[in-house]
Amino acid sequence: MAALLAQMPLTDTDRRKGRLHGSTVQQLRSLIVTGVLAPGTRLNERELCEQLNVSRTPVREAIKTLIQDGLLRALPNQSPVVTELDLVEISALIDVVTAIEGLAGELAAAHATEESVAEIGLLHYRMMLHHTRDELPGYFEANKAFHRKIVELSRNPILIWVWELLALRVDRARYSSNLWPTRWKTAIQEHQQILDALSARDPARTGQALKDHVRNGLSGLVAALQDRQSRRDGVARSAPRSD
What we know:
Number of helices: 10
Low-confidence stretches: 1-15
Structural class: mainly alpha
Mean pLDDT: 84
Order of helices and strands: HHHHEEHHHHHH
CATH topology of the largest domain: Four Helix Bundle (Hemerythrin (Met), subunit A)
Largest sheet: 2 strands, antiparallel
Strand content: under 5%
CATH superfamily of the largest domain: GntR ligand-binding domain-like
């Protein structure tokens, strides 16, 4: 039955519904990843419908998808809220993404051509341009394309598949880590080191440059989350107790 349904052509209505759902999910994801909808924000369906210019049905369906993605948290008889960045999860993510992108760098350097290096170099130039203009959203898009191109250049389908599975969590963490001006500037320098190693077709140096870049960026976010948690714990300890 599933195979037969898959072969059936979609109606125009089905296609419109699919496009509308995908568009609504993408817009809400972007609002959360970029921090426009900050952690802890409670979603209001009516306001979202007005902002996105869609009916309640695609908004509700998109919310279900984002709950599955882990970007929203469902609450009994209440509106869903944007999930907090989790310290334990980010720490675990660092270990995994460091290994994945390091391996991708090693494999990419072995497969790199003049054309592929030029494409990655162009993305690096776009990142620098967005940085000088203080355009973080544009920088982020070029940054993601930079990393994606290196992963694709690895020519390892399993590695690419795992990287795609983690992409949403990595996107949110990377965007948050670049909100600090000093980190953003350092990230530009690290991308240049990655590009230099890739241009030299040096697998070991490319892999290490990517590992250092991932760990440096996300470790700053972990430090910020640890500091926030410490301050919360301090407030909780100093709060008067009622006996």
